[in-house]
Amino acid sequence: MFTWKKYVYEVYREKSFSKAAQNLYISQPSLSARIKKIENLIGFPLFDRSTSPLQLTEVGKAYIEAAEEIFQIEQRVENYINNLTTLKTGNLSIGASNLFAAYVLPPLITQFKQKYPHIGVHLTEGNTTQLETMLSNNSLDFVIDNYHYDSTLYNKELYCHENILLAVPKHFPIHGSLEEYQLSYESIKNKSYLDSVHPAVPLHTFSELPFIMLAPGNDTRIRGDRLCREAGFHPNIILELNQQSTAYMAASTQLGATFISDILVSQLPSFENLVYYKLDGSAAKRQVFFYYKNHKYKTRVMEEFLIVMHERMTKI
């Protein structure tokens, strides 16, 4: 009954026989015949073929639930076997937002792959809600995020500390009176700007400037709103975007000021037409963690990745 469960599951996942067949590298008639054979064996249809997209029948739902339990059992056995080997096979799935997927994880994954070249590493991009859902249903081993996940559901390992800066287009005349607060690109890159000799700028000074903000709900947006509120003003938002890197590029066109992670600034070339400022307040500081599910069997692959992560963390 469950010999060909992966075929049923792929049709369920894609809600299409044709797409599932492409993913499985078999012909659609062959896939349909296999599904039909399972349905004949069970005595009930698994899919309602009258709907578009394809939907599960009640029996189909029960079959998928059972198949997912079997997949988890198979995964546990595979993980156990992998732990008895020298990590010449295995997989690791990591989820991340655009910022971490583009600028933080690549060198870390490279370092891990150099040490364990036969381990497959799969990287998934998404927002916090999407990634937490995937972590919860075991689709991901780790999520790297600066958002706080429920500690009763997830364990976490600290990767680094992150700080939010203000990047302001150079053409605004306000900079003339703020030279003592301006940060060099090099001081951001080597994090020397965090030293107390570099003062934080009074944020209210920029209350009349146009701001580029991330979309509501994003942690950087929440923190930016809070920083402005604590400084006694509501920002004049002229543009809302979904990604920090996009907001950063928009600011570099002289459009408006934006709140930006020092991680992103340090990973990209300096924009000569932007001026950077250090910010004060708890909202300007956050931590980046690798999260993994509580009570999930931690494979040796996961353990070795955390070791590599901590080794790299000490060099940041």
Automatic annotation (TrEMBL):
Residue ranges of every copy of the HTH lysR-type domain listed in the record: 1-57
Name of a matching Pfam family: LysR_substrate
Parts forming coiled coils: none
UniProt keyword terms in alphabetical order: DNA-binding, Transcription, Transcription regulation
Keyword match DNA-binding: yes
Family the UniProt entry places it in: Belongs to the LysR transcriptional regulatory family.
Name of the protein in question: LysR family transcriptional regulator
Biological source species: Dorea acetigenes
The organism's taxonomic lineage, starting at the top: Bacteria, Bacillati, Bacillota, Clostridia, Lachnospirales
